[in-house]
Amino acid sequence: xxxxxxGTTTIGxxxxxxxxxxxxxxxxxxxMVESKVAKKIYQLDDHIGLTIxxxxxxxxxxxxxxxxxFKLYKLERGPISIKAAATLLSNIMHGSKYFPYINQFILxxxxxxxxxxxxxxxxxxxxxxxxxxxxxxxxxxxxxxxAGFKEDMLEEEAIALVIKAIKAAIERDSGSGGKNIEVxxxxxxxxxxxxxxxxxxxx
Length: 203
What we know:
It is built from five helices and twelve strands. The protein is an alpha+beta fold. The strands form three sheets. It has a five-stranded antiparallel beta sheet with strand order 10-1-2-11-12, with helices on one face. β11 (181-187) and β12 form a beta hairpin. Mean pLDDT is 93; it is low at 1-5.
């Protein structure tokens, strides 16, 4: 867990008709900034996204595995539900606990409604809250989220809040930073990543 606390801030939040994901883009190796434009939000299916914190190689391996499994599931039964996707991710992580994926994930998506799950490195997951944050900047992000969150937020309100929370983490957490803030939205009509011009409207 100490490895996970070295860097990164990611957020997932449920709004009225969508789920919003956000992340900063700093990637570090020890005290060196390895990249200022690291990708930390990935589309897994037409209706599912994943945020990553922790060891990049482990995360990319998991992303490849989940994408393949979701495609197979879709061929046999149609689009996978968010709960089934979360259970699959949990089972994979739990089955690897002796050589664990050194990651925290937030799985977010939309089936009959927006849903969100947060995972620890051994596969434990939770979906009782309407927002989660992972990584070393999460304490700072949670302070903003706790103060600003309300039920049934409109999409633009929710985007503004998660960007504000990521910005607070960047300003106070030495492990968070980078050139840009990533934002992705999943709603009934699918997955979308905001352009940097769109993100800048909220800064």
